[in-house]
Design a protein that fits this description.
single chain; alpha+beta; six-stranded antiparallel beta sheet; about 40% helix; globular
């Protein structure tokens, strides 16, 4: 199991591949690479029994793939929590260091870190942290991009991406914000939302097409 394979399993899991089909395009957007470049690794994961691929539908994880992904997600998000809460990292800064640390973390170190942090259940960008027995409440997998116009939702979590987190900080969109989806512009245009809890009831934000595929929401 190479770090690259672990990262792919983690990304597929993060996008909802435990319970639904994920497209190569979604993985490519998360990695910021061409969709064609994902195909080779996806084929390897299927051959090794870590993922299942359905033509024209997408890829999902097998039980073995899910188990590995859960461990990697637990390590990654635990380190993110430590870096933000104990070392005062900005949320947009944590991903690269957590990525390095997760691949060299022993079970003993992870258990000690868990205890030190007070057994956290969620990381700073809203992602669930499985406990040591693998128990957790599944993340929301509803993308802002898929919410119907006119619906009201609450921001639940963000994909762990440095550029995304900087961008969301600039437009002042946070976890827990209640938003009303006003309009999805065609041809990969922005999504216009209205923030409902701000002082100004008409406060609107335009969220780029790509960012709208990185923000997960739940029904308000």
């Amino acid at each position: 199991m190479t770090p690259m394979k672990e990262d792919y399993l983690k990304i597929i899991f993060e996008l909802g591949g435990k319970s639904k089909k994920i497209s190569n395009k979604q993985i490519a957007m998360r990695l910021n690479i061409a969709a064609g470049s994902v195909t080779e690794m996806v084929t390897k994961l299927v051959e090794e029994g870590l993922a299942k691929h359905t033509p024209y539908a997408g890829i999902s994880l097998t039980e073995e793939g899910i188990q590995i992904a859960e461990i990697m997600v637990r390590k990654h998000r635990m380190w993110e929590t430590f870096l933000v809460e104990k070392l005062n990292y900005k949320l947009s800064e944590v991903d690269s260091d957590a990525e390095v640390l997760e691949h060299v973390t022993s079970d003993h170190l992870l258990g000690s870190l868990d205890k030190f942090l007070g057994y956290p259940t969620h990381c700073p960008h809203g992602g669930v942290i499985p406990d040591k027995e693998g128990n957790y409440q599944e993340d929301s997998h509803t993308l802002l991009a898929d919410v119907k116009e006119g619906a009201t939702v609450k921001v639940d979590r963000f994909i762990d991406n440095h550029e995304l987190l900087n961008y969301l900080d600039e437009i002042d969109l946070d976890i827990g914000d209640r938003i009303h989806v006003v309009h999805h512009a065609p041809f990969e245009g922005p999504t216009t939302v209205k923030l409902l809890d701000n002082e100004s009831p008409t406060d609107e934000r335009q969220i780029s097409y790509k960012a709208a595929h990185y923000v997960f929401v739940q029904e308000d």
